[in-house]
Structures are given as C-alpha cells and as structure tokens.
Amino acid sequence: MRIGQGYDVHAFGDGDHIMLGGVRVPHDRGVVAHSDGDVVIHALCDALLGALALGDIGQHFPPSDERWRDADSRQFLRHCQVLIAERGYKLGNADVTVVCERPKVGPHAQAMREALAADLGVELDAISVKATTSEQLGFTGRREGIAAMAMCLLVSA
Ligand SMILES: Nc1ccn([C@@H]2O[C@H](COP(=O)(O)O)[C@@H](O)[C@H]2O)c(=O)n1
Ligand SMILES: C[C@@]1(CO)OP(=O)(O)OP(=O)(O)OC[C@H]1O
C-alpha cells in the first residue's frame, strides 16, 4: 500500500464559473490558472503522484508549456491513472476536502465523485468529496481564492 496527500490553491478572478472535480460549477467569479484551474483534480493528482513518489503535477504538466493552457484537468487525472496501473497499483480510496465560502460544493459533490471515479476506474464509494468554509478567516474566508486537500491510498491491483 502507498499513501499520498496533495494540496492546491487558485485565486478567484473574472468569470462566471469554476471547474471543480471535473464539474462546471456556476459562480460569480472564475479562477486564475494556466489550465482550467480545477483545485480538486490538482490536489488529487498531487496525492496520487505523491503516493507513487513521482513528483508533482507541475513537473508532469509544466505551467510554462502552452499545451496545458486552459487544459481540461481531467486529462491530468487520467495520466495519473495510467502511471498507477503501470506500477501494479489501483486506487483504494481518495478523500478530498474543498475549502471556500462560496460556491456551495455540496450540491455538486455527487457529480464530482462520478467524474473522478470514472477517470480513475474505481467504484463511486472509493471517492469522497466534501467541503468546509474557513469561517470567513484567511484568504478563503475573504473569498479571494479556493483551496483543496486530498489524500489517497493505493493498493496492489
Ligand atoms: N463551500 C462549501 C462550504 C461548506 N459546505 C457545506 O456546509 C457545511 C458547513 O460548513 P462550515 O464550514 O460552516 O462547517 C459543510 O460541512 C459542508 O457540508 C459546502 O457545501 N460548500
Ligand atoms: C495544472 C498546471 C498546468 O500547467 O497549471 P495551473 O492550472 O496553473 O495549476 P497549478 O495547480 O498551479 O498546477 C501546475 C500546473 O501543472
């Protein structure tokens, strides 16, 4: 078994939606990012790469590379799934926490779980997505940005 953890932050910017866990979530802001800025997927990718001791998302998909401009982050996740399978592992389970005041994540959590489970080739009960505010404290509390944390366990395939 191998354990991994990941963390990601993106600042809010102009826009009318954000991508979270592969789901388009309506919001009064967008995020500032090179890719689509999906903090859930970025944190989860870092957890998966960490479990494999294969560096981090920025090493696999450099922000300096124009191929990843506005990229759909689900392709990053599917790449991680290939790396996991190549090494004889599968995802046991993953647990993600989103930190923001708004948007409300709960109404979208099921759709996110379905998207993440599909990309990682696991059953729905292997993926947890939950959320919390930071009680109006710090950059998330001031609604300047959004953060996500992820943990995962890889098991032998
Ligand atoms: N962006 C968010 C934040 C929170 N939730 C849900 O609300 C519950 C209460 O949050 P507190 O930070 O006040 O404890 C939390 O447990 C989530 O169920 C959410 O959906 N989206
Ligand atoms: C995802 C990548 C892709 O270039 O860029 P960003 O969308 O800016 O996101 P970040 O969380 O900073 O991770 C780094 C990059 O891999």
From TrEMBL:
Keyword check for Glycoprotein: no
CC cofactor: a divalent metal cation
EC number(s) reported in the record: 4.6.1.12
Note describing how the cofactor binds: Binds 1 divalent metal cation per subunit.
Pfam families membership: YgbB
Amino-acid positions noted as binding a divalent metal cation in the UniProt annotation, renumbered to this chain: 8, 10, 42
GO annotation, biological process: isopentenyl diphosphate biosynthetic process, methylerythritol 4-phosphate pathway; terpenoid biosynthetic process
Pathway: Isoprenoid biosynthesis; isopentenyl diphosphate biosynthesis via DXP pathway; isopentenyl diphosphate from 1-deoxy-D-xylulose 5-phosphate: step 4/6
Catalyses which reaction(s): 4-CDP-2-C-methyl-D-erythritol 2-phosphate = 2-C-methyl-D-erythritol 2,4-cyclic diphosphate + CMP
Amino-acid positions noted as binding 4-CDP-2-C-methyl-D-erythritol 2-phosphate in the UniProt annotation, renumbered to this chain: 8-10, 34-35, 56-58, 132-135, 139, 142
GO MF, one annotated term: 2-C-methyl-D-erythritol 2,4-cyclodiphosphate synthase activity
Keyword Ubl conjugation recorded: no
InterPro entries named among the record's database cross-references: MECDP_synthase, MECDP_synthase_CS, MECDP_synthase_sf
Keywords, comma-separated and alphabetical: Isoprene biosynthesis, Lyase, Metal-binding
Feature type site, description Transition state stabilizer: 34, 133
Superkingdom as given in the UniProt entry: Bacteria
Coiled coil: none
Family: Belongs to the IspF family.
Quaternary data: Homotrimer.
Name the record gives this protein: 2-C-methyl-D-erythritol 2,4-cyclodiphosphate synthase
Organism this protein belongs to: Lysobacter antibioticus
